[in-house]
Amino acid sequence: GAELNAFIFNVVQKPLQSIIGNNIFAVAILYVIISLFWCVGIHGNNMVGAIKEPIFRPLLYANTAAYTSGAAQKDIPYVMNLTMLQMFGEFGGSGVTIGLVIAILIFSRREDNRTIAGISVVPALFNINETMTFGMPLVLNPILDIPFILA
Predict the structure, then answer these.
(1) N or C: at which end does the chain have fewer Cβ atoms within 10 angstroms?
(2) Contact between 97 and 120 (Cβ < 8 Å)
(3) C-alpha closest to that of 81 among 11, 132, 24
(4) Residue 18 carries which DSSP code?
(5) Are 85 and 27 in contact (CB under 8 A)?
(6) Strands, E, within the chain: which ranges?
(7) Residue 33, CB half-sphere, CA atoms under 13 Å: how many?
(8) 24, 82 contact by CB (below 8 A)
């Protein structure tokens, strides 16, 4: 007698929100999975987005509702929400490649790497890192994949 959407919400989405939602370790594992997808050439955020968005977007909406109801800062329920993850977990693209761009521009003497980093500066400011992941290449490069995953 219930809707299919309500069934999916109660059986899948609600339990995942309680397990992953405000758990920093689960979020770290989620970002390791995203990085592992990138390491083999698959867009990690697009692959995991179908799971990440339904879990963290409602948490963002709950925070917005709590804030607009006049709740104090300490009454905002969820630290981990979609905007927080996008601003701090994905700054400069997956794997925080903006740090790699800056490090190459400051320290690298290889002209080919400096060219890729120079091309990647502006996209990295908007969380786009394909020029770095495929231009360096980070994809299928185990030496660069280790710091990429750790970041």
Answers:
(1) N
(2) yes
(3) 24
(4) H
(5) yes
(6) none
(7) 13
(8) no
Task: Tokens for 66, please give them.
Answer: 């709590």
Checking phi first, is residue 96 left (phi over 0); if not, alpha (psi -120 to 50) or beta? left
Surface-to-core class of residue 99, CB atoms within 10 Å of its CB (0-12 exposed, 13-18 middle, 19+ buried): middle
**How would DSSP label each residue in 108-135?**
---HHHHHHHHHHHHHHHTT--HHHHHH
pTM of the complete model? 0.83
Q: Are 55 and 13 in contact (CB under 8 A)?
A: yes
Angle made by CA atoms 66, 28, 11, in degrees to the nearest 5: 60
Residue 42 sits at φ, ψ, to 5 deg, of -105, 135
Name the 3-class secondary structure at 144: helix
Mean pLDDT of the chain: 89
Q: Give the whole-angstrom CA distance, residue 130 versus residue 44.
A: 11
User: Is-cis flag, bond preceding 142, omega within 30?
Assistant: no
Which of the four pLDDT bands, split at 50, 70 and 90, describes residue 73? low
As a whole number of angstroms, the distance between CA 52 and CA 85 comes to 10
